[in-house]
Design goal:
Elements: H1 2-23, H2 52-63, H3 65-68, H4 77-80, H5 99-113, H6 118-129
Helix pairs in contact: 2-5, 5-6
């Protein structure tokens, strides 16, 4: 019985460590200061790949990953492609064609630059976008 408990405990520790490694935000990004230099270190796709509002939204995601990971995306991508937060939309090309993802990030970035708290930003995003796609 003792061996079973030890093996089960090890399995839990390995699972938890794997989860943390796969979902962690790079060190220094809590305040948006993280600017990864290589593709493997990037939290988002490179904003230089895009133009206009799409470029600006990817810049916001790159500068504020700790903010976007706390926001729900209301376009339905959680159900359709398994995204867990608004940040996930900027880890791939999903946001390039989604006006909801773009609008949420642009709004959140503007409010963050104005010094608004995460709670204020979340409330504003929820009020504006919660009705989208039946969410």
């Amino acid at each position: 019985m003792r061996k079973v408990i030890i093996v089960a405990s090890l399995a839990v520790v390995v699972t938890l460590a794997t989860y943390i490694m796969l979902t962690r935000i790079p060190a220094g990004s809590e305040n948006g200061a993280c600017c990864p230099t290589t593709a493997s270190e990037r939290t988002t796709l490179d904003p230089a790949l895009f133009q206009g509002d799409v470029h600006q939204a990817y810049v916001i995601a790159e500068r504020h990953p700790a903010l976007l990971i706390q926001l729900h995306c209301y376009c339905g991508c959680d159900r359709e492609v398994g995204h867990r937060s608004l940040l996930d939309c900027y880890r791939d090309r999903h946001a390039t064609t989604c006006p909801i993802c773009l609008g949420e990030a642009l709004m959140a970035g503007r409010m963050a630059d104005e010094g608004k708290s995460i709670d204020q930003i979340r409330e504003a995003v929820d009020a504006r976008y919660a009705h989208a796609h039946g969410s």
